[in-house]
Design brief:
By secondary structure, this protein is α/β, with parallel strands linked by helices. The strands form 7 sheets. A 7-stranded mixed beta sheet has the order 12-25-26-27-23-24-13. The chain is elongated, with a radius of gyration of 31 Å. It comes from Flavobacterium arcticum. It is an enzyme of class 6 (ligase). One of its GO terms (cellular component) is cytosol.
Length: 560
């Protein structure tokens, strides 16, 4: 095996083998086929990156096809959200298609199946059909309606289409093999009656194709060469191929279904049904709640398209389902934002710092670099004055020699400013520190070039000037679930693992350069983490979401 072949994943190897066997490069076509019954989540991101990534690698078109065959659960809102997410991730689809575009062709093929004795109308109840289907170790039994005449089947199917029957009264089943070892081949349902309004076709149809019938035939209609889906569809492959066998024309590309493993993310769920539960029951504020595993939730929290694409590339494509630690996703966004996010100062748990020997009423504007990772990002001015806020945890009245932040009698540097020394504290009646008093070395200003400015001290603190500080609502997010695999035990309701402390809302204080921030802008609050401006921000009130800390502190907490 060559070095190039070793670097290919198993799906790319399948494609390469097909090209060697005679499939032409210009016959390659892929698709991403979401059902518009919910918002896309991080699991879908892997599939998006796989299919569109293959399109880029092989210079092949990739269709976005909505498998909209269940009007009871599908909405235009979901269609719009899915398109928005894919575009945000940076991908372009060749054609926008819908399974509903093919309803007439699928119906015509179904009529042909009936005419050829390959399908029949079953009028049993769903309970009776389930009983006669057998078990994995026992063959099924034929439906009493299996040998209906072609004429009767055609008449009933026409009436089903016209809305002359109530839901549940009839279905169209393929006539395959009730003794098959694959239970999906035991006369699967092709159509059911649904007297529901469809978001695209309106009330034109009263019957809707089942996913297994519509999916493969839609691939065929679109000349998709490779249809990739997750492992739970591996048993469906035989049915996928059987349906294709009945309509396949040698002059057209025949799709090939192949399966890859689903990637689950720790401390969350990636089932659209369960995500919908969280929304409907009010455990989160919506599909784009920053605690959700949805792409829109990750975007609102401050994740970047590149971080999600890098995450998908890092976990890769495999044949075995596994649980990916959310820390890896956090690492990817941390790595990306480190290169792009401007540095600013904010204090989230403030305590007042008074510089006793700083001139009363004076202020100065100091230079602060916007990003050490990007010289072209330039610098900004930050105001300095006698009274500042620093983080409460950055001061300790009595500290060991290993404590390198502010304490009495020791020096630290204020970022971009001066060296200070702790002198005394003021406490309230309960013994809580309300003020820290210090002195500063007036010759030690950062960047001044003076001898004092070169003096080395072990600690550097961020700060904001109290008189210039802008208050802001800061939303601190934690894991939505306390259990790393909340969906792992089917005997336990996954919602019992919801973390009651997954959101903390506090007031923080920002440097004044942030007074005109816009929705979606991202910053590193120095020494605190990466934060994103939330869409709830107004001219009167700034709201920030914490995207991720500067380090993975969760691992330390778990290890304890």
């Amino acid at each position: 095996m060559s070095n190039e072949e070793r670097s290919l994943n198993f799906i790319e190897l399948i494609i390469e083998e097909d090209l060697k066997k005679g499939l032409q490069q210009d016959e390659l076509r892929f698709r991403f086929p979401p059902e518009p019954n919910g918002y896309l989540h991080v699991g879908h991101a892997s599939s998006i990156c796989l299919n569109f990534g293959l399109g880029l690698k092989y210079n092949a078109p990739v269709n976005l096809r909505f498998d909209d065959t269940n009007p009871a659960k599908e909405e235009q809102e979901y269609v719009d959200a899915i398109k928005r997410d894919i575009e945000w991730l940076g991908y372009e689809w060749a054609e926008e298609r819908y399974a509903s575009d093919y309803f007439q062709q699928l119906y015509d093929w179904a009529v042909n199946f009936i005419q050829r004795g390959l399908a029949y109308i079953d009028s049993q109840s769903s309970e009776d059909m389930a009983k006669q289907k057998g078990t994995p170790t026992q063959p099924g039994t034929n439906s009493p309606y299996r040998n209906r005449s072609v004429e009767e089947n055609l008449e009933l199917f026409e009436k089903m289409k016209n809305g002359e029957f109530p839901e549940g009264s009839h279905v169209l089943r393929a006539k395959i093999d009730m003794a098959s070892s694959n239970m999906l081949m035991r006369d699967p349902i092709m159509y059911r009656i649904l007297n529901k309004h469809h978001h695209r076709t309106g009330d034109s149809w009263h019957i809707y194709p089942m996913y297994d019938w519509a999916h493969g035939e839609s691939d065929y209609i679109e000349s998709v060469s490779h249809s990739f889906c997750t492992l739970e569809f591996s048993m469906h492959r035989e049915l996928y191929d059987w349906f294709l066998d009945q309509v396949y024309d040698d002059n057209q590309t025949r799709p090939k279904q192949r399966e890859f493993a689903r990637r689950n993310l720790s401390h969350t769920v990636v089932s659209k049904r369960k995500l919908l539960q969280l929304v409907q029951e009010g455990h989160v504020t919506g599909w784009d709640d920053p605690r959700m595993s949805t792409i829109s939730g990750l975007r609102r929290r401050g994740y970047t398209p590149m971080s999600i694409r890098n995450f998908a590339d890092t976990i890769g494509i495999a044949k075995r389902t596994n649980l990916v630690d959310v820390s890896l996703l956090e690492f990817c966004v941390r790595e990306d934002l480190n290169k792009t996010a401007p540095r600013v100062m904010a204090v989230l748990d403030p305590v007042k710092l008074v510089i006793d020997n700083y001139p009363e009423g004076e202020e100065e504007w100091l230079d602060a670099e916007n990003s050490p990772e990007d010289e072209s990002a330039g610098s900004r001015k930050v105001p300095f004055s006698k009274e500042l806020y620093i983080e409460r945890e950055d001061f300790m009245e009595e500290a060991s020699r290993k404590y390198f932040r502010l304490t009495l009698g020791k020096e630290v540097r204020l970022k971009n400013a001066y060296i200070i020394k702790g002198e005394s504290v003021v406490k309230d009646s309960e013994g809580n520190i309300t003020e820290i008093h210090c002195t500063y070395d007036a010759d030690s200003r950062s960047g001044s070039g003076s001898e004092a400015s070169m003096r080395k001290v072990k600690g550097t603190l961020h700060w904001v000037s109290i008189q210039h500080a802008i208050p802001a609502e800061i939303r601190i997010y934690d894991r939505l679930f306390t259990n790393e695999n909340p969906d792992g035990d089917k005997e336990v309701d996954f919602k019992s693992y919801i973390n009651p402390n997954s959101l903390e809302v506090i007031t923080g204080y920002l440097e004044p350069s942030l007074k005109d921030v816009k929705d979606g802008e991202q910053f590193q609050f120095q020494r605190l983490g990466y934060f994103c401006v939330d869409r709830d921000t107004t001219p009167e009130k700034i709201v920030f979401n914490k995207t991720v800390g500067l380090r993975d502190t969760w691992t330390k907490v778990e290890s304890k």
